[in-house]
Structure formats: C-alpha cells, structure tokens
Design brief:
By secondary structure, this protein is mainly beta. It has helices spanning about 25-30, 140-145, and strands at about 5-10, 15, 20, 40-45, 50-55, 60-65, 75-85, 90-95, 100-105, 105-115, 120-125, 130-135, 150-155, 160-165. It folds into three domains: about 1-35, no CATH class; about 40-105, Roll (SH3 type barrels); about 105-165, OB fold (Dihydrolipoamide Acetyltransferase, E2P) (Beta Barrel), CATH 2.40.50.140.
Length: about 170
C-alpha cells in the first residue's frame, strides 16, 4: 500500500490528501502520517468581537455578537456574524451559549519577500529560513508595498498563509 500524507481535521472527520477531500480515511485505506489539530474548542458564551473562530473550516473574524436571554424552557442563544479571513465573505452562526465552537491556532511569524510573481509572492521565514509561496493579498494598499527585500508579518493557519502587514 502506498503511504500518503493525510491530514485529518478534528471538526469534519474528513481526510485531505494533497488537496483532495475523501469521505473517510478507512474507505481510502491510506496510512495516516500525521494528524494536525490547528484549533481548540471554546464556549460560545466566552467569545468576543474581534476574536477569530472557525466557520466551515475557515478562520473568520467576529464583527457582531449578540446574546438572547433564555425563555421559560429554552437556553440562551448567541448570534455571531463573522467575516472570512481568506474569502472575505460574511458568515452567520446561531448557537446555544453553552455549546463549543472551534478557535483557530494562529502562528504570527515574520518573513521577507524574495520575489513577486504575478498573483503569487515567494517568501522566506526569518526564523527557520524556509521558503514558500503564498497568494498575493487582495488589499491593494498592502500588495503595492510588496517588493523584493520587504519584511512582512504573516499568519500561518491550518488552511493556509496570509500576509497581514509590512514592517
């Protein structure tokens, strides 16, 4: 049997092999090389505006948070409006306050731009010296500042890498 690198996400229990999604690992009979958990569960009642949560396996920044009072026989509900970090789409979640929601683990790192190639940016991490490519940021103000040799702050998450600002 061929050994493949499989990433199992804890929320969906789906396996991702080189960008392709499969329903269950057992059906593919793939050997799991590493299991990555890049999120942690938190009570819905303890989150605040400005924090990041995972909605549909995408990190999203909370822009609105409302709590409704419990009724006679019901539990309090929270209504969360968030904007996706990568897609910039507005997403809504309505959940009981005592339920759990996943919060992404975000690594804030420093890097240096090596080259800009159309819609891709080649970068080098300033601590590990590894090189990688990431998509050009959609914000025109940020993308206009990216040239060879510019130092940037980027966020590394389970879904990908995003350049946040120049230094």
């Amino acid at each position: 049997m061929e050994e493949l690198e499989v990433i199992v996400t804890p929320l969906t229990l789906r396996c991702y092999v080189i960008g392709k999604s499969f329903s269950l690992c057992e059906r593919r009979k793939a050997t799991i090389v590493r299991k990555i958990s890049m999120s942690k569960p938190v009570d819905v009642g303890s989150i605040k505006v400005g924090q990041y949560i995972l909605i549909d396996d995408e990190p999203c920044r909370i822009v609105e948070y409302e709590k409704s009072k419990p009724g006679k026989h019901g539990a309090a509900k929270a209504r969360i409006v968030a904007i996706g970090l990568f897609t910039e789409q507005k997403k809504n979640v309505i959940s009981p306050v005592d339920a759990k929601i996943e919060v992404p683990v975000i690594e804030k790192r420093s890097g240096q731009v090596i080259s800009v190639m159309g819609d891709m940016v080649q970068m080098m991490d300033l601590e590990s010296y590894e090189t990688f490519e990431t998509p050009m940021p959609k914000e025109s103000e940020l993308s206009s500042k990216l040239n060879s040799g510019v130092k940037v702050e980027y966020w590394k998450m389970s879904i990908g890498i995003k350049i946040m600002r120049t230094k």
